[in-house]
Write a structure and sequence with these properties.
The protein has 451 residues and is an alpha/beta fold. The protein has helices spanning 52-68, 82-91, 104-112, 120-126, 128-131, 134-138, 162-168, 176-188, 205-217, 219-226, 235-249, 257-262, 265-274, 335-345, 348-358, 377-391, 399-402, 405-419, 425-441; strands at 42-48, 72-78, 98-101, 141-142, 145-146, 149-150, 153-154, 156-161, 192-194, 277-283, 304-307, 318-322, 325-328, 395-397.
Length: 451
């Protein structure tokens, strides 16, 4: 029997992601501004989104750093779609000094292309090994080298429209059988069981793969497969995908497979908030945008609540993930300056302010719970329960954190073929197993901490 290495209780105070989207890349090489003419400081660049969250990040993290540093100035460049702009920019030898991604699986792609810088030399210099929880820091290692710092810890839960549930007399499900039965009941009453979308975010398909694999087959089997001990064609994995597909085929997500594949974030969020859809399988990042759809400010008096995503065993299992990362451009002219800013950005003081002021939960760093102020008690309860479950070994694995890059892309792109009837669950998982085994042989599998 394996010795249990439990994930630390710090899970209860960790969470969401710098919502950086991206735009057309600039030809300027990273750090090419050199010395700022007005300030005499070394300039480094970071790309951020164009929304209010990005403005808050600039005020909280960037401006505070620039005010205290006598040698470095961070230039925050707003982009309409950050992540999609970063890739072509890096490929062309340009891009920002600080490189954001959606998670470790995305960093692997950049690291294998030698577009981001190994960060090992900065770990001791800036005390990152003392700042970050060890297992989370190790998630940035590829081929034995550190290429990224973890931006956030997140999990997926089952949100439900509390107002609608109370009106209908529905009870939140406690296990997978209850979830399926409740979905049948909700649909019979003319309400869509689950909100969702793939039209704006195809990669979001992996939310559902993650949850059904961990909640039906179970995290121990997922762990064994990630370690290469069992294949992804295991019958329990097939059952996981088949249960998800059955719900899809019944039209339980947005009313039909076609609607789900075409819907965007606003459509699915509106359907959930207004009660056209009763439930929403989504991550803790929901906290960063729920205010746009619920509350007096948007004229919606409905309330939301949550329960753990139901598992077949009935145990509260939380799939853990690193939802965003920060790396340094390999072509940066000032990597040490970039590393100094990252140390400031991930400091407990700044992370706590990002959480309270910007609604971005903190990275997986060592921070005292009492430092966290102003978080919605419902969200705080998620992380408290997540901590208890992790102490009991009841944690699973998100695809965007623990799967190698080609496998991850295959998961969220090819699963749509199952939903539209072009591929069986067995065929889909056989394809995943083939790609995963190839990546393992090539040494591209990501680090998976021992259970």
């Amino acid at each position: 029997m394996r010795q249990q290495h439990r994930l630390p209780r710090v899970l209860s105070i960790l969470a969401i992601v710098l919502i950086t989207s991206c735009a057309a890349p600039q030809a300027t090489a990273p750090g090419s501004a050199g010395e700022a003419a007005a300030t005499g400081k070394t300039q480094i660049t970071m790309w951020v989104g164009t929304n209010e969250v990005a403005d808050c990040v600039i005020k909280t993290a960037v401006d505070s750093f620039n005010e205290q540093s006598s040698t470095i100035e961070v230039i925050a460049d707003k982009k309409a779609d950050v992540i999609n702009a970063v890739r072509p920019a890096l490929a062309g030898g340009a891009g920002p000094d600080l490189v954001p991604t959606h998670g470790p699986a995305f960093v692997a792609e950049l690291a294998l292309a030698e577009q981001v810088l190994p960060l090992d030399d900065f770990v001791d210099d800036f005390g990152w090994d003392e700042l970050f929880v060890p297992w989370a820091l190790n998630m940035g290692r590829i081929g034995g080298k550190l290429y990224s710092l973890p931006q956030e810890l997140e999990t997926v839960v089952l949100y439900y429209n509390k107002t609608l549930f109370e009106e209908k007399g529905w009870q939140p499900p406690k296990n997978m059988d209850e979830l399926v039965a409740l979905a049948d009941q909700i649909a019979a009453e003319g309400v869509i069981p689950f909100a969702g979308q793939a039209g704006e975010c195809k990669a979001c398909n992996e939310w559902y793969f993650t949850e059904f694999m961990n909640k039906v087959a179970g995290p121990e089997k997922v762990y064994q497969a990630l370690k290469g001990e069992i294949p992804w064609t295991d019958p329990d994995f097939v059952s996981s995908i088949e249960i998800l597909n059955e719900l899809m085929q019944k039209g339980y997500f947005m009313g039909s497979v076609e609607n789900f594949l075409a819907a965007n974030f606003d459509q699915f969020s509106t359907a959930f908030a207004q009660g056209q859809a009763a439930m929403n399988m989504e991550g803790t990042w929901f906290y960063g945008r729920e205010g746009e759809y619920f509350g007096e400010a948007v004229g919606n008096s409905n309330e939301w609540d949550w329960v753990p995503m139901p598992s077949s065993s009935g145990a509260s299992i939380y799939s853990i993930g690193i939802g965003g990362t920060q790396s340094i451009n390999k072509n940066s002219k000032h990597p040490e300056a970039a590393a100094e800013f990252l140390t400031h950005y991930f400091s407990p003081e700044i992370q706590a302010k990002l959480f309270s002021d910007c609604r971005l939960a903190v990275a997986p760093i060592r921070i005292e719970a009492e430092e966290m102020q102003g978080i919605d008690p419902r969200i705080a309860a998620i992380f408290a329960d997540m901590a208890d479950s992790s102490d009991a070994g009841n944690y699973g694995y998100t695809t965007w954190t623990f799967f190698p890059p080609k496998s991850d892309v295959y998961i969220y792109e090819e699963i749509e073929k199952v939903w539209v009837g072009d591929m069986t669950a067995e065929e889909y998982l056989a394809g995943l197993d083939r790609i995963f085994q190839e990546e393992m042989l090539a040494g591209q599998a990501l680090d998976v901490p021992d259970r």
